Amino acid sequence: MIKAIGAVMVILAGSGWGMLQAAKIEECYRQMRYLRKLIFRIRSEIRYSRRVLPEAFLSVGSEAQEPYKMWLLSLYERLENRQGTSLAGIWEEETRTHLPV
Predict the structure, then answer these.
(1) Per-block average pLDDT, block size 10, for the chain (101 residues)?
(2) Distance between CA 93 and CA 84 in Å, rounded?
(3) Among residues 35, 29, 57, which one has the least CA distance to residue 45?
(4) Per-residue pLDDT at 84
(5) What does the buried/exposed string (b/e) look like for 19-54 if buried means 16 or more CB atoms within 10 Å of the residue's CB?
(6) What is the 3-state secondary structure (H, E, C) of 21-57?
(7) Cβ atoms 73, 57 nearer than 8 A
(8) Model pTM?
(9) Residue 25 and residue 11: Cα distance in Å, rounded?
């Protein structure tokens, strides 16, 4: 009887842990889809609206959700004020600062 209860508890605990991990993966996937959408919007701003990169970051960032809003707006400020060595350096610094890993 005790073994059966223990076996059921192990199965329930494993199922609960699996569901929790699945929820984390789903959230990660949702964030990646949203980030992809933002990147496509930036690309569209550059291609079709003929905006320069800082203006595209400002336009898309003003309508984005957090934490992407602060990330894009800080990219805009740094590029507009010419703070940093290169786009790659600014991108890496601001991404590490504003986006969770």
Answers:
(1) 87 91 93 93 92 90 89 90 80 86 68
(2) 9
(3) 57
(4) 66
(5) eeeeeeeeeeeeeeeeeeebeebbeebeeeeebeeb
(6) HHHHHHHHHHHHHHHHHHHHHHHHHHHCCCCCHHHHH
(7) yes
(8) 0.75
(9) 21
What is d(CA 65, CA 60) in angstroms, rounded to the nearest whole number?
10
Longest pairwise C-alpha distance within the chain:
72
The total of structural domains in the chain comes to 1
pLDDT value of position 20: 94
User: Residue 80 belongs to what domain range?
Assistant: 2-98
The sign of the dihedral angle between the CA atoms of 10, 15, 18, 23 is negative
80 burial (CB, 10 Å; 0-12 / 13-18 / 19+) is middle
Q: What does the alpha-carbon distance between residue 72 and residue 41 come to, in Å, rounded to a whole number? A: 12
